[in-house]
Amino acid sequence: MEVIKKMREEKGGKIFIKDEDVVSKKIQNLIDGGVDSFQVISDFDRTLSRASYNGEKCTTCHGILESSIVFNEETQKDLAALKKRFYAIEIDPTMTIEEKCPYMVEWWETAHKIMIKSKVKRTSIQQAVTESNVILKDNCKEMFQILNQNSVPLLIFSAGIADVLMEVLYQKSSFLPNIKVVSNFMKFDENGVLVGFEGELIHVYNKNEGALTDSAYWYFEDIKHRHNICLLGDSMGDLHMADGVPDVNTCLKIGYLNEKVEHLLPRYIDAWDIVLVDDPTMDVANVLFAAITDAIIKA
Q1: CA spacing 20 to 30 A to 272: which of 18, 87, 187, 242?
Q2: Is 255 helix (H, G, I), strand (E, B) or coil?
Q3: Which of 21, 45, 222, 238 is catalytic?
């Protein structure tokens, strides 16, 4: 298939497809359905943003706040200790998602309590993003533009901090009309000081219909005629992000594997339609979106 050929030309040996016939059929269904039946659901950290740059790990939405001058040294140490303990569990290839979930809830709830105790100010978020090393993947802006120009909805489903995520988009790209964010939104008092988080906790393994807020529910209602999906993610939990979409016709799942490749690659190949290893670009997704929208990708 020409689309898969172009994908392989972009990524060479870093692209893995378990069943090319199945993937070809899915891609053809997405093309035949056209833009009016199509939507994209994506994770943010290490999916739309880079996992590393010049050998240095790039930060996540939680990490942007945790590593900045927003928090004092004691708070930073507390959050770093949490990450050291729980991130190893998140990516442990020997544990099931069901086994990991209680630990993820404990991690996020404890981290949020620490953040609230530190009295973060709304105005500090912009500074934290500016001083961070977060980087959107190459050609991510072009992806946003292609989808927006063709009125294709992009749902960014993140276990991070929504306020930080949106500030990253404002600073590094733009927050376009077709974008909807479902994530952990901060709640501030009249003085702009963090006092809590809105809605249900969203962590890496419950990004599905059980985590939807009222606004996200109506988002799905507004686009319920769009039965074809491209799902983008970097963790096994991301595979369930489309579970809240009714009457799915075709769902093509593209997974980005950023670490522990030797241990995780077989599981990723088995679970995802397309797996990309250490990919700092959105090139493969853009090849697909160009085929669906007849868009021209900038070199």
Answers
A1: 87
A2: strand
A3: 45
